[in-house]
Design goal:
mainly alpha, 16 helices
Length: 345
């Protein structure tokens, strides 16, 4: 579900220009597809972070040897795969765009001093930082109940989600000098990404099977509708807004989606469905690395097709998912490529 959301988000970004002029000229169906599809696509990264918290936090680290062992196992594949794909996408884009390479930018990217050429790779430095913190955060959480997280997570929500919304509304209203900030030093809380990860950990501690699904569905529909209406209002007000992970209602949407997926487990324990889903999830990171270049190449093949943009986006999404998965399966047959180039265990 998480990797599908990421592919959907980037498929829409491939087909749509995401500009005010395009929004103004688009029909209602095209607007609705872009708005709803892009919003669902933004569920991907939070779901990945939920899974990180759900699966990684709470592990036992008895001593420094356990921490060192965790780092030796987890960090080298993440680091080598990040560096490889940073270099690969740099070369790919200067060939794709037929522009001379900026080697100063290249070395900045390779040393984590500059943003990667392909925007999707922003995720990798973030997740490397998360993995460095996991042994210590996991050890702390082992000693306390989820209730101990109420205060720090409330502070994180206010500073990481609510204040950015206030500042966004100030900008939309035409102000740029009265932005709201805080003098509290809250970097230790991990920001919005740490918030999502802790939500995943909390959900692991709860009995999600006791949650009534109709309330979850109603909450999801309400929150999702409000997120879409909020974006639509900004676009109608001629403000070019790109939905990010700090919108206050987005965590609510993603919590509901995560609960629904969790509740689907009994339905999925049939025939070969668990095997198929496991095979996909094991190479999800490989699909993540591969899919964006595949989408850009596919766009060269379909951009002149006389079809509506929603149809083109569905074509890009479907074709890139299939091709990226098949390439990932093929490349993962080589153990060293699987581990150090594609980051898969």
């Amino acid at each position: 579900m998480a990797i599908a959301c990421v592919l959907l988000c980037h498929s829409i970004e491939t087909v749509y220009e995401m500009t005010l002029d395009e929004w103004r000229d688009a029909g209602i169906i095209s607007r609705a597809f872009r708005l709803c599809g892009f919003t669902v696509g933004r569920f991907g990264v939070p779901l990945f972070l939920f899974l990180t918290g759900y699966l990684m936090l709470g592990r036992h680290f008895a001593n420094e040897k356990d921490v060192s062992s965790f780092y030796r196992k987890r960090l080298p594949p993440l680091l080598t795969s990040t560096l490889f794909w940073t270099a690969f996408t740099f070369v790919f884009l200067f060939l794709y765009n037929d522009e001379p390479p900026n080697w100063d930018a290249f070395w900045r990217q390779m040393t984590f001093l500059g943003k990667p050429s392909m925007s999707m790779l922003w995720y990798m430095p973030m997740i490397i930082g998360v993995y460095i913190a996991i042994p210590f955060l996991s050890t702390a959480l082992e000693r306390f109940s989820p209730r101990a997280l109420i205060l720090p997570m409330a502070v994180c929500y206010v500073t990481g989600f609510f204040l950015p919304l206030v500042n966004l509304l100030i900008k939309v209203d035409g102000g740029d000098t009265a932005l709201v900030g805080t003098t509290l030093h809250v970097g230790y809380l991990g920001g919005i990404y740490g918030f999502y990860m802790l939500l995943g950990y909390i959900m692991k501690q709860l009995d999600l099977s006791a949650v009534r699904l109709r309330y979850v569905v109603l909450t999801l529909l309400a929150a999702f509708t409000l997120v879409c209406l909020f974006q639509n209002a900004l676009w109608k007000d001629k403000y070019n807004y790109g939905l990010w992970y700090d919108l206050p209602l987005l965590p609510i949407c993603c919590v509901c989606v995560f609960i629904l997926i969790n509740q689907m487990q009994p339905l999925l324990q049939r025939n070969r469905i668990p095997d198929i889903l496991s095979s996909i999830s094991r190479i999800a990171l490989a699909v993540f690395f591969i899919h964006r270049p595949v989408q850009l190449l596919l766009w060269l093949a379909v951009e002149n097709i006389p079809a509506k943009k929603p149809i083109l986006a569905v074509i890009i999404f479907t074709a890139s998912a299939i091709i990226s998965y098949l390439l990932a399966v093929l490349l993962c047959k080589a153990k060293l490529i699987r581990k150090f180039i594609l980051g898969c265990s």
